Amino acid sequence: MAVRYPRLDAIFSDHAAASAAARRTGPAPKPTAVTGVTVTLPDPGLVVDPEQRTVTVDGQPLDLPFLEFELLAHLVENPLRVHSRRQLMENVWGRPDTGDTRTIATHIARIRRKLGPGHRDAIATVRQIGYKYDPRLVRAA
């Protein structure tokens, strides 16, 4: 019969504090759905409404799949802030970064295409880091 010493496991385990906290509080909530009020920024042509889960560009509704909406809403909620690819994977996808940056690049490309020529530049690529939403980069129609 094996004898278990939980206190020693807690002392020598790298994961002990995190797993003990998880047992006490339950599983951590998955950071996926964007909640809050309608976000309208200095770019009057782009309106993201997280409550209705709608996006309008120059008054025209934009049809986005779940992850594209979540990614755009996350960028728009935090304008001018540079988001690393790792942060985007953790905050939007709800999982740690596995090193596959093409997933994010593909979704960003699809969002830019759907935003159209006047608004696609508002999602700027920051080389070697990630992406940011900058409404000042919107081209005048």
Q: Tell me the span between the first and last alpha carbons.
A: 77 Å
Q: Summarize the helix and strand pattern as letters.
A: HHEEEEHEHHEE
Largest sheet: 4 strands, antiparallel
Number of helices: 5
Radius of gyration: 20 Å
Residue fraction in strands: 15-25%
Give the integer mean of the pLDDT values: 78
Strand order of the largest sheet: 1-2-3-4
Helix content: 25-40%
The overall strand count is 7
Structural class: alpha+beta
Which term fits the overall shape? globular
pLDDT under 50 segments (min length 5)? 7-33
Describe this structure in words.
The protein has 141 residues and is α+β, with helices and mostly antiparallel strands. It contains five helices and seven strands. The chain has helices spanning 6-12, 16-25, 66-77, 85-93, 102-115, and strands spanning 39-40, 46-49, 54-57, 60-62, 83-84, 123-126, 130-133. The chain has a four-stranded antiparallel beta sheet with strand order 1-2-3-4, covered by helices on one side. The protein has a three-stranded antiparallel beta sheet with strand order 5-7-6. Strand 2 (46-49) and strand 3 form a beta hairpin. Helix 3 crosses helix 4 (85-93) and helix 3 (66-77) packs across helix 5. The model is unreliable at 7-33 (pLDDT under 50).
